[in-house]
Specification:
alpha/beta; Rossmann fold; five-stranded parallel β-sheet; 37% helix; globular
């Protein structure tokens, strides 16, 4: 007897591929919208410019598929970290530009029925996060999710926390898009905790002595990337998608 074919895996609900009636039906079941926000920014000589975007899109797609929540087209530009030297390909917008664009987008989506927006990002630069956190809606709820706010200390060998183009970024990329990683070019560059804090706030430029990354990408592995990614996915799922509504 032939074994039954496995059921097809759930697919993300991509807004850009849906017709209006499909959007309305999905909204009636769940009026939330996932909005992934990436960057076009160097992450060292070994990672692609779209590192943040690739990571956040993977999580957005997985969450959309698992919870049947519509996923908006990705915003591929963010507020980049500043650097002491120019890196070819960097494409950044100002904080107020990103903020205004999100305000306009969420206003139009709110007017057509969405009641909650989940702004998902993998970029830990404070000015970038502030642009997301200060978006204003009329009534809809806005939730900003920084993927790397999850505690990953026990999964990292050479760092105590995520940095930039580092052990965490590189490991996740080795897990989800290994063909885009050039490990032979990875270079370690560590900074103090205070310097890292100032860097995230936008008060410290990526030092000229760094190849672009901060941290220890040489310690990255696909196995580590899977563990990191699955922890992030589980935490975001539990705290954002399975958590009861605010009024409960």
């Amino acid at each position: 007897m032939t074994a039954p074919s496995p059921l097809p895996a759930a697919k993300p609900r991509l807004l850009k591929e849906m017709i209006p009636s499909e959007v309305a039906a999905a909204q009636a079941a769940d009026p939330r919208l996932i909005v992934p926000v990436g960057t076009c920014e160097q992450h060292g000589p070994h990672l692609p410019m779209s590192c943040d975007t690739i990571i956040v899109e993977r999580l957005a797609n997985d969450l959309s598929a698992e919870f049947s929540v519509i996923r908006a087209p990705t915003i591929e530009y963010g507020v980049n970290s500043t650097t002491e030297r120019v890196f070819p390909g960097n494409g950044s917008v100002r904080k107020k530009t990103l903020h205004r664009m999100l305000n306009d987008l969420l206003d139009s989506w709110e007017s057509c029925g969405f009641e909650e927006f989940i702004l998902l990002t993998a970029h830990g630069h404070d000015p970038h996060q502030e642009a997301l956190a200060t978006v204003i809606t009329k009534r809809a709820r806005v939730r900003v999710v920084d993927m790397f706010a999850v505690n990953l200390t026990d999964l990292l060998e050479g760092q105590s926390e995520p940095m930039h183009g580092d052990e965490a970024d590189t490991s996740i990329m080795l897990y989800i898009a290994p063909h885009l990683v050039r490990m032979e070019l990875a270079e370690d560059y560590m900074v103090s905790r205070e310097s890292l804090r100032r860097y995230r706030r936008g008060w410290l430029r990526v030092p000229r002595g760094s190849s672009g990354s901060i941290g220890r990408p040489s310690l990255a592995s696909a196995a580590k990337g899977r563990a990191i990614y699955e922890r992030i996915r589980a935490r975001v799922s539990d705290r954002i998608f399975r958590a009861p509504p605010a009024d409960e």
